[in-house]
């Protein structure tokens, strides 16, 4: 696959530059850390410029999750683009890569280009007493897929 340049600024979280940190988020030792008790906080956000229709490669690392997601819930860590696009939900630590399809930007069905909010957040379900969760994310990357290459070896 042939990729375009990096779209996310400061995806290694050397500082908080280029990111809007919602309640419950902080930057610690190159990680964006979400830490909340009995509340949800808000997401971390960054405005990025995208074109559509197009495919993008999203990659990131979740180095730790402490506490627990709420019982009997669909809690997950969500990564989304605020437009007509795919989104990602993860529930474990690891290094992840996903291909996201961006169908349109803004109103309407047909393509477009413009500024879009990229966000990482915790899925919202009602908090319960004693609920605590903390997780971190780093090495966030978003790159446009310029072309897919066929594997000639099968």
Largest sheet: 8 strands, antiparallel
CATH class: Mainly Beta
The name of the CATH superfamily reads Galactose-binding domain-like
Please name the CATH architecture.
Sandwich
Shape: globular
Give the low-pLDDT segments.
none
Helix content: under 10%
Count every beta strand, where a strand is a DSSP E run of 2 or more residues. 13
Number of DSSP helical runs: 0
Q: What is CATH's topology name?
A: Jelly Rolls
The overall number of domains is 1
Mean pLDDT: 81
The arrangement of helices and strands along the chain is: EEEEEEEEEEEEE
Distance between the termini: 16 Å
Strand percentage: over 45%
The Cα radius of gyration reads 16 Å
Report the structural category: mainly beta
How would you characterize this protein structure?
It is a single chain. The chain has 154 residues and is mostly beta strands. It has one domain: Jelly Rolls (Sandwich). The strands form two sheets. Strands 1, 3, 4, 6, 7, 9, 11 and 13 form an eight-stranded antiparallel beta sheet that branches. The mean pLDDT is 81.
